[in-house]
């Protein structure tokens, strides 16, 4: 799943290529992808991209007001995209000339630019769980997922004191708190593992029980890990971002491999549809965490 660093890199990539350019067509291909109907996505045609922003894991393309004389609404519109678990953006210097066929392959949405003709991007989604979402709205806050977002950890206003106050009200495992988008915007399964490893903290610790020193260490690990990942991804083409994410991870997705810090074996705790990875030596005093799914299989 693309998380804050990858979406931030995509934002920069698209800002360089879309700002000031006019949309020719915006076409939903998969029936599930478009989550709004008013204004219609067809209203994006003829509008110029004026900005590309990020809200947590959401991309936000601002398209300038249309021509009232041509019957367009005289207001900006926003194309908001959430790539979900298996979605991705593919930049195309030459889009296929033939119209896409709904229901064929992973293609879910296509945006084509007017000049030069044929450039634009495709949104694709692999797998059977179709969660990629596109919204056409007058205000990004109309998107429920955007409206409920907590603070962005890379916002200059997100201080150590702000973070400590958030933790103090959370009587939950710190892994879940870091992933909760209504508490903190942009961090998912992979980077929460990386942050906790950098902080040398068990994912099962209760957030509200962290003392001031532990909260400070977690804040430093959170902001430092995300900033480093953003810098590694900055300037990369969209097609290289997935590989960059994988190569930059220390524990997530590396079950059975040696920890790069201490050399111990990276371990895993499995859930119904996800898993977490950690180093027992670095994070839990050498004690393996209970893997509930494995425990059930052994009964």
Automatic annotation (TrEMBL):
Pfam families: Fapy_DNA_glyco, H2TH, zf-FPG_IleRS. Residues 250-284 form the FPG-type domain. It comes from the Bacteria. InterPro entries: FPG_cat (IPR012319), FPG_N (IPR035937), H2TH_FPG (IPR015886), Ribosomal_uS13-like_H2TH (IPR010979), Znf_DNA_glyclase/AP_lyase (IPR000214), Znf_FPG/IleRS (IPR010663). Coiled coil: none annotated. Residues 2-104 form the Formamidopyrimidine-DNA glycosylase catalytic domain. Its cofactor is Zn(2+). It catalyses: Hydrolysis of DNA containing ring-opened 7-methylguanine residues, releasing 2,6-diamino-4-hydroxy-5-(N-methyl)formamidopyrimidine. Keywords: DNA damage, DNA repair, DNA-binding, Glycosidase, Hydrolase, Lyase, Metal-binding, Multifunctional enzyme, Zinc, Zinc-finger. PANTHER family: FORMAMIDOPYRIMIDINE-DNA GLYCOSYLASE. Belongs to the FPG family. This is DNA-formamidopyrimidine glycosylase family protein.
């Amino acid at each position: 799943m693309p998380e804050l660093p990858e979406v931030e890199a995509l934002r920069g990539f698209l800002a360089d290529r879309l700002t000031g350019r006019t949309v020719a067509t915006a076409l939903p291909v998969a029936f599930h992808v478009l989550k709004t109907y008013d204004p219609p996505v067809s209203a994006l045609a003829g509008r110029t991209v004026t900005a590309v922003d990020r809200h947590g894991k959401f991309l936000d393309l601002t398209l300038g007001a249309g021509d009232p004389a041509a019957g367009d609404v005289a207001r900006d519109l926003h194309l908001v995209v959430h790539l979900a678990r298996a979605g991705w953006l593919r930049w195309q210097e030459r889009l296929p000339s033939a119209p896409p066929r709904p229901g064929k392959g992973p293609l879910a949405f296509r945006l084509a630019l007017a000049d030069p003709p044929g450039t634009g991007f495709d949104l694709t989604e692999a797998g059977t769980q179709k969660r990629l979402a596109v919204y056409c709205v007058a205000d990004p806050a109309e998107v429920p997922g955007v409206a409920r977002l907590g603070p962005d950890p890379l916002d200059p206003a997100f201080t150590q004191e702000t973070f400590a106050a958030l933790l103090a009200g959370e009587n939950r495992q710190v892994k879940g708190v870091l992933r909760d988008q209504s508490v903190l915007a942009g961090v998912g399964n992979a980077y929460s593992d990386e942050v906790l490893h950098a902080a040398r903290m068990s994912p099962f610790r209760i957030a509200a029980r962290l003392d001031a020193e532990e909260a400070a260490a977690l804040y430093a690990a959170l902001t430092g890990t995300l900033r480093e990942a953003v810098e590694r991804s900055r300037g990369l083409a969209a097609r290289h971002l997935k590989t960059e994410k994988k190569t930059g991870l220390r524990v997530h997705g590396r079950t059975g491999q040696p920890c790069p810090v201490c050399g111990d074996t990276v371990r895993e705790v499995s859930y119904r549809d996800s898993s977490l990875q950690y180093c027992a030596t670095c994070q839990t005093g050498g004690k393996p965490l209970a893997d509930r799914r494995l425990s059930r299989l052994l009964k």
